[in-house]
Specification:
The protein contains one helix and eight strands. It is α+β, with helices and mostly antiparallel strands and 300 residues long. β4 and β5 form a beta hairpin.
Length: 300
């Protein structure tokens, strides 16, 4: 019995010691396992960060390569544009020359010879309605002076004809066919023979004002000599004296041709001929006629 109690007494402390040892050893084991997990997790995070860094590095390298490629392409494009510009300048210089300037507008002043196709009559000169006193008529030949402006619309006929410029021309001219035509006795006499006056005709000036708007086609752009034509244009004529029925405005069509010559920088001289066609007679008067002369032009 005593032996049993002794054994029992010895076993209890040993068991307590074993439990205490287990209690002391367990936290160390748990701590070791927890540290291992944290280290493993940290390694995983570091690996993930390293993968991201490699990815960013790869993307950065690709972006740098794209930037270099774009810069190289841009430089090549700029170089090509510069080369094309220099070639264009050289072609223009070789085609136009040093002393010829190409302008898109021109102001010109005209003058020369005018001719009527038919004799003029009117209310104060030869008059079939009031055939009293002097029945004089002006000569068919006269002179003209005028001015106009050319405005470029296309330098290659809208792509159909290179070196062929289309201009819009607006022009006016004054024509005179006589300033000492004897007035008739009815209204061109002082005093009128209708009031019992003696034959005393006054001097009547026979003239005409013309306003035109026409397309003008000039050839050989860049050359010092440029021929041109007007295929057809609108013309409005104002005549004085008016017709026997007091008509003084007559519409018509204009045709023309001429040559420009560049004498120096923006200054040009030229010759031209124009034909004014009216549709038959207007109140007994046909204003069809022609002009021929020269002009001085200034490009701007």
């Amino acid at each position: 019995m005593q032996t049993f109690f002794k054994k029992t007494t010895l076993r209890i402390p040993l068991a307590c010691l074993s439990v205490a040892a287990l209690a002391i050893a367990a936290p160390h084991s748990w701590a070791h396992d927890s540290a291992t997990d944290r280290v493993r997790l940290l390694e995983q995070k570091l690996q993930a960060i390293q993968i991201e860094l490699e990815k960013v590095k790869s993307e950065s390298s690709q972006a740098t390569q794209k930037v270099n490629t774009l810069e190289q392409t841009t430089n090549q494009t700029v170089q090509k544009v510069n080369n094309d510009l220099e070639e264009t300048k050289a072609r223009i210089k070789g085609r136009i020359g040093e002393d010829v300037t190409e302008k898109s507008r021109m102001l010109f002043f005209r003058g020369g010879f005018a001719h009527m196709m038919n004799h003029r009559n009117g209310v104060t000169i030869q008059n079939d309605v009031l055939p009293i006193g002097a029945q004089d008529r002006s000569d068919k030949d006269g002179w003209y002076a005028g001015a106009g402006i050319d405005w470029a619309l296309s330098r290659d006929m809208w792509g159909y004809a290179p070196k062929t410029t289309i201009f819009a021309e607006l022009m006016f001219e004054y024509k005179q066919f006589g300033s000492h035509v004897l007035g008739n006795g009815a209204v061109g006499n002082a005093p009128s023979m209708l009031a019992g006056g003696a034959l005393n005709p006054i001097n009547v000036t026979v003239n005409q004002f013309t306003l035109t708007a026409s397309p003008k086609i000039k050839f050989f752009e860049g050359s010092k000599i440029r021929p041109w034509i007007i295929p057809a244009g609108l013309a409005v004529h104002v005549m004085s004296p008016p017709s026997e029925s007091i008509t003084y405005i007559v519409p018509g069509v204009q045709f023309g041709a001429g040559i420009d010559y560049n004498i120096w920088k923006d200054f040009f001289i030229g010759i031209d001929g124009r034909y004014q066609l009216t549709a038959g007679q207007t109140d007994g008067i046909n204003l069809s006629g022609m002009t021929a002369g020269g002009y001085l032009g200034i490009g701007f």
